[in-house]
Specification:
Order of helices and strands: HHHHH
Number of strands: 0
Distance between the termini: 37 Å
Number of helices: 5
Radius of gyration: 15 Å
CATH class of the domain at 14-68: Few Secondary Structures
Shape: globular
CATH architecture of the domain at 14-68: Irregular
Mean pLDDT: 82
Low-confidence stretches: none
CATH topology of the domain at 14-68: 30s Ribosomal Protein S18
Helix content: 40-55%
Bound molecules: zinc ion
């Protein structure tokens, strides 16, 4: 039987969404990259996002490139 508590903990089981969905990480995909940077424009550590080492690396490169090209806004707006 499942308790509501167990369901909460399911979120802790992380997997790499890029491996699973075979999504491409592109520096042009700002919406995607924005999910992996904090409001201080730092890259979210992979222990938080669950992204695998390989994709974290690709992600980091894409984010850096997007920054250089000013595709990522200075302040990521939160609501
Ligand atoms: Zn991956």
């Amino acid at each position: 039987m499942e308790s509501p508590r167990d369901k909460r903990y399911m979120n802790r089981k992380k997997y790499c969404r890029f491996c699973k969905n075979k999504e491409d990480i592109e520096y042009k995909n700002v919406d995607l990259l924005a999910r992996y940077i904090t409001e201080r424009r730092k890259i979210v550590p992979r222990r938080v996002t669950g992204v695998c080492a390989k994709h974290q690396r690709i992600l980091a490169t894409a984010i850096k490139r997007a920054r250089v090209l000013a595709l990522i806004p200075f302040t990521v707006l939160h609501k």
